[in-house]
Write a structure and sequence with these properties.
Elements lengths: L1 E8 L5 H4 L6 H9 L13 E2 L1 H5 L8 E10 L5 E9 L3 E2 L14 H4 L4 E3 L27 E3 L2 E7 L8 H17 L4 E6 L6 H11 L9 E4 L8 H13 L10 H26 L7 H8 L3 H49 L13 H10 L4 H4 E2 L6 H6 L9 E2 L6 H33 L9 H8 L3 H5 L2 H29 L1 H4 L10 H11 L3 H4 L5 H16 L13 H15 L30 E9 L3 H13 L4 E4 L2 E10 L3 H5 L8 E5 L2 H16 L13 E5 L6 H18 L2 E4 L4 H24 L9 E7 L7 H9 L5 E2 L4 E8 L2 E11 L13 E7 L3 H13 L5 E7 L3 H7 L1 H16 L3 E6 L10 H9 L1 H16 L23 E2 L13 E2 L8 H4 L5 H4 L23 H8 L8 H5 L11 E3 L19 H9 L13 H4 L14 H5 L11 H45 L1 H9 L13 H13 L13 H13 L12 H15 L6 H11 L13 H5 L1 H13 L3 H19 L1 H4 L3 H12 L7 H20 ...
Parallel strand pairs: 1-4, 1-8, 2-5, 8-9, 9-10, 11-12, 13-15, 13-16, 16-17, 17-18, 19-22, 19-23, 23-24, 24-25
Antiparallel strand pairs: 3-4, 6-7, 14-15, 20-21, 21-22, 26-27, 28-29
Helix pairs in contact: 5-6, 8-10, 9-10, 10-14, 14-17, 17-21, 17-29, 22-28, 23-27, 25-26, 30-31, 43-45, 44-45, 46-48, 51-52
Length: about 1400
């Protein structure tokens, strides 16, 4: 091991020479000799007292001996160092260097290669001076040292009063001396942690001087940071030792970085160690350091940083633990404080102060609050932090009130105050934004927020809310409007129920079918609203078609709220909450009951309670009660057949009021009498209540009654008399009679046994299944799914009846008085679509409920009512509030109630309104029940007829040959069908019955009876090839019409054959316009099959014959015309006055046919003469019309000037043309167009502008569309000559059928007036007589009416409403009086409506369209 003596030198001397501080020689030696932090001292002063300078440590020398230390290189080479620091000590009295003999200057003395000092001690720190014995004492070996190398120190930090030039000069001089002495040296820069760059460069210049020939190595160090200290001395040792592979010199930056990483690692390790091991902030430093000393990380940290740093770190950790604990506790208190604020101060407006005083006022408010003790506590002796430190508040859940003095508590309050205010603002902004979305017409289903964002830019509510809040509200709004739009679309489909009927029996729906449906509804706004959700819309459409095809509960669009499900729930709830007919207790009465009702038995397990009402005059009731108590004990227990009954007692005087007070569920009645007076009183009350009062009959129907006779001090004949009278009365009341002649125990047991046995029999009767086929009437109550009213309000009057019995999940049975007798009525509650399952069952009446604010409800009701129009029906409109208020306050309600009333009138039913918020009694339905009862026989006969007809195959394609064809009703041929569920005009649906062409009625030969039947007289031949719908599709009305004149007994062969039903899809087809002879020619009625003529003759002029008076062949099964033939007279069919009565055989029928042919020929000849006269009159009329037409155009334009200039449309007045174009552009969706008048000022202004300039553009005039419509009506009524002359108006009256019928005076025969199809043809011929300009104007305006009526769903102006508004304008007639007006009005309205509905046929020459 090599031993090196190293001398550390640097600038020294007085403050003037070296500056305010030294260059760092002592710190450098200290860090090298004792690197541990605890042994490192920063303060090493060179100013000493004389005594310290003379001590053994300084020993009167100007150098210090730092001792000996061993160091090891990275390669494992060990070196021993003896360190000498050459310095210059100052006298603290003179501040001059101590003088020691002959002393050379410091620059020369410091480079000495040998030092001498006997008994010189090792220097440790300045505190060592004077107390050397308390420190380690080590003497410099041998008192002398030969210096092997030098460490030259260069301070690179800026020091006051020291110039860098002076230090450079000194360093250069000593280096030159050392080099001259050929000693190794190392130039060490100190204080690099506070380096000045200029000084660093100066040191580098020195080390790089060429004079030194690279023998001076520069090493950057920092004693404070312990950076590169060992490197400097080891480098010098290797230079002395002349080692070739010396240690690598590392720059200060790299070493500082490595040192920092090391320190950070050690610090993190110790911090982690302390955090893991020290968790209680109450631990002291002595305890903690002892705990940590066993860990290597702690010891390494102390070596590097020292105990002071370790203690500092420990205390910092303790403080953090305490702060964390206090903060944790504080946050717990603050969380509780926030909750307390929400409860104690929910409304910040209660403070009513400014923001500056809010916190102080809030604390006072909380301290005075009634709930203060529940949330807070006060402790004047200690603060909350002291309580926490002492763990005194661990078990206390309340908040120390002084916590509110902290700034954190105030912050919580301020945040709460702001959050409340902000929440209010935010709620307001959300509401405003939601309202903005609802008011905006651009936000439609399926649109994204990004598409409409620009609409809301700049709105405070939109800008204030976050993106997430806006999106959330928008999504909620989208869900709402999508759901609403889907509901509206379902309503749209339901409103078109009449159109969807054609798909009811279609098994396959094609894309063409879907396209047709879409064409019908696509213009409706409810359809367009789902344009962005086309896929969902198609799914809903398909689902609706599935529902139409298979109307079951699972397919109902209101599945969750389907009426069938709701009815089951309501009836189930009612059945569980009501006792129905099952009595539960026993009441005992004597002569009547006084007191309260509402008695109900309570069953608890197998025990039951009997409520006994005892009624008797004077003391009789009390005596009987005492006897019962004696037999049953104080607890009132009685055992019968191993079942315990508990008795409750009540007694009452024998007056009539006692009987009236008995509740429906009373258990029994015991009547006691003892003499003539008590018997008469009892009998009188019983007769007056039980036998004569029908209102009380239900109360006592199942009430057990016991009549008890207790004779007292009477003669034998009186006793026998009263006994016999009592027995007679009991027989009359159907109750038990007990004669109290035995002991009291026996007769009491008899009474109780009788009551209990009667109850059991009643229970057995009530628990038996109630057979629904044992009813007198069956009423089907139909409710439409989705109607917004409570079904329970409708069911309540039915289930409130005391005689109610639940027959099934959807039906109840009620006993009710109809007329003067009690009838048993079954009410079946069903949805509209659920009525199909009762189609083949016997139903005596239908009650239809519909919502008075829902069009679809009435539309579906119309279809349902039409299918069952031959059965009594009642239509009930359900309104939200009182019927009168609803009618006048809502237009839609008024319209639907009016239409419902008209629908009821059409089917000869009754109509009523029902307020959803009112309570009605069962008597609400009594009038309809009376009507249904009066029609019961006819309904049941019709049901039997339909059943037999269906069983025989009527209406099917296979068995249609087994029935006689129905004569075509002429009043329905080629006419608008009076259908329901439309807009009222009838233009949507047409009906074609299997009639023949009118010309064929004269050309075809008559059909004889032989042609109707084949040789076997079994299968009649077809007279009509057009097949009607099957009975499964046809309405009950159609089936009844088919069967009412052809009901016959089915043969055994036909009855065994199964009827296969085929269903046919309704389609719209064009039918060729009927060919008719000119007006005036005879048109025979449609030919009636002869077997109907034969039936008519039988009933002419007399009552229907009995079966005994009918020939035998008419009774056979091969004569289908036998049975239930209506009483038709021959005169009623053929117009004959007196037809002879024939015997019903084949020969007589042939004779009658010949006579009929002859009569027809004579009639034809007579009418040909009339036809010739009519032709002459027509020629005169045509000449007159031509003259009128010739001067029409001239007179019109001359009279009205520019208003009548022809337009681009040809002969159409330009005013008419422009008004119509404007109305069709702007007003087709205007509700009540032509019905709601416009402003007169606007009308006059419009006429004035056109008179000034015919090219006026109405759009720029800013005139409402209603004013333009009013001006158009004024133009026809006041400014345009009449389009119909007086002669044509007379013919119009005749066509309408409003004028008297006479052969001589009428131009049209009876046939034209009675057959609507012929009237339609006549109307077309009449319009062709008009002058061309009149016809063109009429065609133009009626084409406009067609466009308006096509949009009736939007403007509520169908063809009927247009006819009401326009007929006085188009057909001006001078009425003589109001009676004349009322007589003509409906006919002229019908003419105008027909011209709108049949526009293609009347004006365009197209075929009429009908529905098959």
């Amino acid at each position: 091991m090599r031993q090196f003596n190293i001398s550390v030198i640097g600038l020294s001397g007085t403050e003037k020479d070296r500056g305010q501080v030294g260059v760092g020689k002592s710190c450098l030696c200290n860090r090298f000799m004792r690197p541990m932090a605890d042994d490192y001292f920063i303060d090493h002063i060179s100013v000493l007292s004389q005594s310290d300078f003379s001590g053994r440590i300084v020993n009167n020398d100007h150098f210090l001996y730092w001792g000996e230390v061993r160091k090891t290189t990275d390669e494992g080479v060990e070196y021993n160092f003896n360190i000498i620091e050459q310095t210059e000590f100052m006298d603290d009295s003179t501040f001059q260097a101590f003088k020691v003999g002959k002393m050379d200057p410091y620059s020369k003395r410091c480079t000495a290669t040998k030092v001498f000092s006997a008994e010189k001690l090792m220097y440790i720190c300045k505190n060592q001076l004077g107390i050397e014995k308390e420190y380690e004492q080590k003497v410099m070996p041998d008192g002398r040292l030969s210096i092997d190398g030098f460490v030259v120190v260069f301070d690179v930090s800026p020091v006051p009063n020291r110039s860098v030039e002076k230090q450079v000069e000194f360093v250069q001089n000593v280096i030159a001396t050392i080099v001259k002495n050929k000693k190794p040296l190392v130039l060490v820069t100190t204080k690099n942690d506070d380096a000045y760059e200029l000084y660093v460069r100066e040191a580098e210049k020195i080390s790089q001087r060429k004079d030194y020939k690279s023998t001076v190595q520069l090493i950057e160090t920092s004693a404070h940071e312990s950076i590169n200290i060992d490197l400097a001395f080891l480098m010098l040792a290797q230079m002395i030792d002349k080692v070739k592979n010396r240690v690598k010199i590392i720059s200060y930056q790299e070493s500082a970085k490595s040192r920092k990483e090391l320190l950070d690692t050690r610090s993190e390790a110790v911090t982690r160690l302390i955090r893991n091991q020290i968790t209680d902030y109450h631990i002291l430093w002595s305890q903690g350091s002892k705990m940590l000393s066993q860990y290597r990380e702690w010891n390494e940290f102390l070596n590097i940083f020292g105990h002071e740093a370790g203690q500092k770190l420990f205390r910092r950790h303790m403080k953090k633990l305490r702060d964390d604990h206090l903060n944790k506790k504080l946050h717990q208190y603050l969380d509780k404080f926030a909750l307390a604020l929400e409860y104690m101060l929910p409304d910040t407006g209660a403070l009513n102060i400014s923001d500056d005083d809010a916190w102080e006022c809030a604390r006072n408010y909380l301290q005075n609050h009634i709930e203060f003790e529940q949330y807070f506590f006060e402790c004047p002796q200690a603060s909350w932090t002291e309580l926490v430190d002492m763990d005194e508040a661990e078990d206390e859940a309340r908040i120390p009130f002084d916590v509110l003095e902290t700034s954190e508590a105030e912050t919580v309050f301020r945040n709460y105050l702001n959050s409340v205010q902000q929440d209010k603002k935010k709620i307001g902004w959300k509401q405003q934004f939601k309202m903005l979305l609802e008011e905006s017409g651009f936000v439609t289903p399926g649109k994204q927020l990004s598409e409409v964002r620009v609409l809301f830019m700049g709105r405070e509510c939109f800008e204030a809310l976050s993106e997430h809040d806006c999106q959330q509200i928008y999504d909620i709004h989208q869900d709402e409007i999508i759901e609403k739009s889907k509901q509206n679309f379902v309503e749209l489909l339901l409103e078109h129920a009449q159109y969807f009927l054609q798909f009811k029996n279609v098994d396959i729906i094609t894309q063409e079918d879907v396209r047709q449906i879409t064409d019908v509804i696509q213009e409706d706004s409810r359809y367009k609203m789902l344009d962005r959700l086309d896929q969902e819309r198609r799914v809903m459409l398909v689902q609706h078609l599935r529902f139409i095809h298979c109307p079951i509960r699972d397919h109902c669009p209101f599945f969750n709220n389907c009426v069938d499900s709701l009815i089951e729930e309501v009836l189930s709830d009612k059945s569980t909450t009501s006792n129905h007919k099952t009595p539960g207790g026993v009441g005992v009465g004597v002569g009547g009951g006084g007191g309260g009702g509402g008695w109900k038995t309570t069953g608890n397990g197998t025990d039951r309670t009997l409520n006994l009402l005892i009624v008797g005059s004077e003391h009789l009731a009390s005596d009987l009660l005492n006897d019962i108590r004696i037999c049953t004990g104080s607890k009132g227990e009685y055992i019968y057949e191993n079942q315990t009954y508990y008795l409750n007692y009540r007694i009452a005087n024998g007056d009539m009021e006692a009987f009236k007070a008995i509740d429906v569920y009373s258990s029994g009645l015991i009547c006691v009498y003892s003499n003539q007076q008590s018997f008469e009183t009892l009998k009188d009350n019983l007769e007056r209540t039980l036998l004569c009062n029908l209102e009380l009959e239900d109360k006592f129907e199942n009430l057990p009654i016991v009549l008890v006779y207790q004779p007292q001090d009477l003669k034998e004949n009186e006793v026998e008399y009263l006994r016999s009278e009592g027995m007679r009365l009991s027989e009359m009341l159907h109750c038990d009679f007990i004669d109290h002649t035995q002991n009291h125990q026996k007769y009491v047991y008899d009474i109780l046994n009788i009551v209990i046995l009667s109850l059991k029999l009643t229970e057995m009767k009530s628990y038996d299944p109630y057979p629904s086929n044992h009813t007198d009437l069956r009423i089907l109550c139909c409710i439409f799914c989705g109607d917004q009213y409570d079904i329970e309000n409708i069911v309540q009057p039915l289930v409130a009846e005391s005689t109610l019995v639940k027959a099934s999940e959807h039906s109840i049975i009620v006993d009710v008085f109809i007329g003067d007798a009690k009838r048993r009525v079954e009410f079946i509650l069903s949805s509209y679509h659920g009525t199909n399952q009762y189609r083949d069952e016997l139903i005596h009446g239908y009650i239809y409920f519909y919502s008075a604010k829902r069009r679809s409800s009435l539309a579906n009701l119309s279809i349902l009512a039409a299918q069952n129009a031959n059965i009594p029906l009642q239509i009930i409109a359900v309104t939200e509030s009182g019927g009168v208020n609803a009618f006048f306050n809502s237009d839609i309600c008024q319209f639907l109630i009016t239409e419902g009333n008209a629908l009821a009138d059409r089917f000869k039913g009754s109509f009523m309104t029902f307020s959803a918020d009112q309570y009605v009694k069962f008597a609400f339905y009594n009038p309809f029940l009376k009507t249904s009862w009066d029609n019961k026989y006819e309904v049941e006969n019709l049901h039997v007829e339909e059943s037999i007809t269906l069983d025989s195959g009527e209406g099917t394609l296979e068995s249609s040959v087994n029935q006689m064809p129905r004569p075509p009703p002429r009043h329905e041929s080629y006419m608008l069908s009076n259908t329901l569920g439309t807009d009222g005009s009838g233009s949507e649906n047409y009906e074609m019955l299997p009639t023949r062409s009118l010309n064929s009625l004269n050309e075809e030969r008559d059909i004889s009876l032989d042609e109707i039947y084949d040789e076997n007289n079994e299968k009649p031949k077809h007279l009509h090839q057009n097949c009607t719908e099957s009975d499964s599709c046809a309405s009950s009305t159609e089936r009844r019409v088919r069967q009412q004149n052809a009901y016959f007994k089915a043969s055994s062969k036909a009855s065994k054959a199964s009827a296969k039903k085929q269903k046919k899809k309704k389609v719209a087809i064009p039918v060729q316009t009927p060919r008719v002879p000119p007006f005036g020619s005879y048109v025979s009625p449609p030919e009636i099959p002869l077997h109907y003529q034969r039936m008519a003759i039988v009933g002419a002029g007399e009552k229907k014959k009995t079966e005994a008076g009918v020939p035998e062949f008419m009774k056979s099964d091969k004569s289908p015309e036998y049975s239930m033939v209506p009483e038709l007279t021959a005169a009623g069919i053929f117009g004959a006055e007196n037809l002879p009565e024939y015997n019903m055989n084949a020969k007589c029928l042939k004779d009658f046919e010949k006579l009929e042919k002859r009569r027809i020929k004579e009639e034809a000849a007579r009418l040909r003469k009339l036809q010739e006269k009519e032709k002459e009159q027509e020629k005169k009329l045509k000449r007159k019309l031509k003259q009128n037409a010739k001067g029409l155009a001239e007179s019109v334009e001359a009279q009205f000037g520019k208003l009548m200039i022809s337009s681009e449309q040809g002969e159409i007045p330009i005013f008419l043309n422009k008004c119509v174009e404007f109305i069709e552009k702007e007003g087709l969706d205007s509700e009540g167009i032509y019905r709601v008048p416009g402003s007169r000022a606007h009308v006059d202004m419009l006429f004035q502008r056109f008179e000034e300039d015919v090219n006026t553009v109405i759009d720029v005039l800013d005139i409402p569309v209603n004013a333009v419509a009013t001006a158009l009506k004024d133009f026809f009524s006041k400014r345009l000559p009449p389009l119909f002359s007086k002669d044509i108006i007379k013919e119009l009256e005749e066509i309408a059928g409003s004028r008297g019928v006479g052969v001589g005076s009428s131009k049209l025969n009876v046939e034209v007036k009675t057959d609507r199809s012929c009237r339609l043809i006549a109307l077309k011929s009449l319009l062709q007589k008009l002058p061309p300009i009149n016809f063109a104007i009429l065609k133009y305006i009626f084409q406009h009416f067609v466009h308006v009526s096509d949009n009736s769903k939007l403007n509520s102006m169908d063809s009927k409403n247009l006819a009401i508004c326009w007929w006085p304008t188009l057909i001006p007639i001078d009425f003589t009086d109001m009676g004349h007006f009322e007589q003509l009005r409906p006919y002229l309205e019908d003419i105008v409506q027909t011209m709108i509905d049949q526009f293609p046929y009347l004006f365009c020459g197209k075929d009429a369209f009908v529905m098959v």
